[in-house]
């Protein structure tokens, strides 16, 4: 039994490194008015078949939706999302005080790519970290699976293509 526990412990720590996830340093403004504007753009984009949002619009929309739908025990206070060329995405989840041990800070940083598989937007995380510790590789498979299960919701429409460039995301949609 000790051998099995030791092997599981070593396997889970194999992908852990003592370096923080490298995040872009562009400022992102998150506010309710920008979220409302982004929501209107998203609705128009859904009808037109293509949607383009900048980092502030996407981050504001996501942050307000999480606040409205998260319930009173929601540990998230906001989300900042940066887009880079080649479908790279960087996500900083801002957490309430006390969610993580004090020496880790109050943010969860994620880095990876986005794309389309089976007509749904998918995320492929390459790193996740808190403080100056990060995890990569196979340890991220369960996190990717949870995110992609949520993105596979048929009510989100059928994505035909996703592209990113510095500061912006474009999603082309198929039928609903």
Task: Give me a quick take on this structure.
The chain has helices at residues 2-13, 32-48, 55-69, 141-151; strands at residues 16-17, 50-54, 76-84, 88-95, 107-117, 120-130, 133-136, 159-165, 168-173. With 176 residues, the protein is α+β, with helices and mostly antiparallel strands.
* Global mean pLDDT: 82
User: What's the N-to-C terminus distance?
Assistant: 51 Å
Question: Which percent range fits the helix content?
Answer: 25-40%
* Main beta-sheet strand count, sense and barrel state: 6 strands, antiparallel
The computed structural class is: alpha+beta
Shape: globular
Helix segment tally: 4
Residue ranges: pLDDT <50 for 5 or more in a row? 1-14
**Which range does the strand content fall in?**
35-45%
What is the string of SSEs from the N terminus onward? HEHEHEEEEEHEE
What gyration radius follows from the Cα positions, in whole Å? 17 Å
Number of domains: 1
Biggest β-sheet: strands ordered side by side in the sheet = 1-7-6-5-4-3
Quantity of strands, as a count:
9
